[in-house]
Design brief:
Elements lengths: L1 H18 L8 H10 L4 E2 L5 E7 L3 E7 L4 E3 L2 E13 L5 H13 L4 E6 L5 E10 L4 H23 L5
Antiparallel strand pairs: 1-2, 2-3, 3-5, 4-5, 5-7, 6-7
C-alpha cells in the first residue's frame, strides 16, 4: 500500500511541476540551474528566462528558455529558442528553402515560423530538451541556439538585433 501512495504522490508532484509555470510563474528549478552555471538572465512577463549571449565578432544573441514544460509519456520537456528576425510578409521560396536546408544540417533543433496578427512572420530556432539535462549540456544547448540563431539572422536579415 505504501508503494502505491508513494507513486501517486510522485505523479501528483510531477504534474504540478509541469503545470505551475502556465500562469507566468518562473520555473525555479531552471533558475537554480542557470545560477549554478553562473549565467546572467532576466525573466519575461510570461515567466520565461532570457539570456543575452556574447558571440564572436562583437555580436550578441538573445536566447529564451520556456518555464512552462510539456510531457510526452514520462519525459518532461522544455523549449529553448533564439529569434533570427521578422519578415514583413510571407517569406519567399528562396528564404524558406534556406531555412529548410539549414534544418537538414543542424544536429539538434529546427527552424520555425510564427505568423503575427500584423502579417509579419517571426523566424526562430527551437531546441526541445529534457528538463533533467545536465548543467553542462544545458549550457551547450544555450550556446548552440545562440550561434545558430545569430548565423541565420546575419544571413537572412544582415542585422544584429536579436
Amino acid at each position: 500500500m505504501n508503494r502505491k501512495l508513494l507513486c501517486l504522490s510522485a505523479a501528483i508532484a510531477f504534474t504540478a511541476a509541469a503545470a505551475f509555470a502556465a500562469d507566468g510563474t518562473v520555473d525555479a528549478r531552471l533558475g537554480k540551474q542557470l545560477d549554478k552555471l553562473g549565467l546572467h538572465y532576466t525573466t519575461t512577463k510570461s515567466g520565461n528566462y532570457s539570456l543575452q549571449q556574447d558571440l564572436d565578432g562583437n555580436r550578441t544573441q538573445t536566447v529564451y528558455i520556456m518555464s512552462k514544460t510539456e510531457t510526452y509519456g514520462g519525459l518532461e520537456i522544455r523549449e529553448i529558442w533564439s529569434n533570427a528576425g521578422n519578415f514583413d510578409a510571407v517569406p519567399s521560396s528562396d528564404q524558406m528553402s534556406q531555412l529548410l536546408e539549414d534544418n537538414n544540417t543542424e544536429k539538434i533543433g529546427a527552424w520555425n515560423l510564427e505568423a503575427s496578427d500584423d502579417g509579419s512572420y517571426l523566424v526562430y530556432f527551437s531546441i526541445k530538451i529534457p528538463v533533467y539535462l545536465k548543467d553542462k549540456d544545458l549550457s551547450d544547448m544555450i550556446d548552440f541556439a545562440a550561434t545558430v540563431g545569430d548565423g541565420m539572422e546575419a544571413k537572412l536579415f544582415n542585422t544584429d538585433d536579436n
